[in-house]
User: What shape does this take?
Amino acid sequence: MTGESLSPVTRRAVLIGVAGAAASATLLVRRAEATPEMMKAAIHRVIGESPVRKGKVALDIPPLVENGNTIAMSVSVESPMTETDYVKAIHVFNEKNPQPDIISVHLGPRAGKAAFSTRIRLADSQNVVAIAELSDGSLWSDTVEVIVTIAACLEYN
Assistant: This one.
């Protein structure tokens, strides 16, 4: 080098760089953009055109939650769970999460009881739908509208 000098890095330059990087990272985090139509399409993929009736299914989930990161949920279905009359599967869907399929639980007559419990995440206030598929081919459902005050399921790009 011939007499060139590098300017020293100032505290101001470092703080401006850090602030710019933080602003850029903030722009990359956005809410998941699912729609109720995506949930309807997911339900259609699982059950097809079969009619779904309300009843027999009890979806137990709080209607108001403070934090969408961990929500207790349980589903039970009225069924004798015998060799000829049992629940084949329980499917749970949501409207606004990145993935509309929450869980599918497959059962048989030896399960003894058509019920399960788990924890889920919800991106925003939305409807959660549980659909039970019975051995006779009938489909039954329950829907709960859940209000979430602090959302979960942020998507990072």
In short: The chain has a mean pLDDT of 86. The chain has two helices and eleven strands. Residues 11-28 form the longest helix (18 residues). The first strand starts at residue 29 and ends at 31.
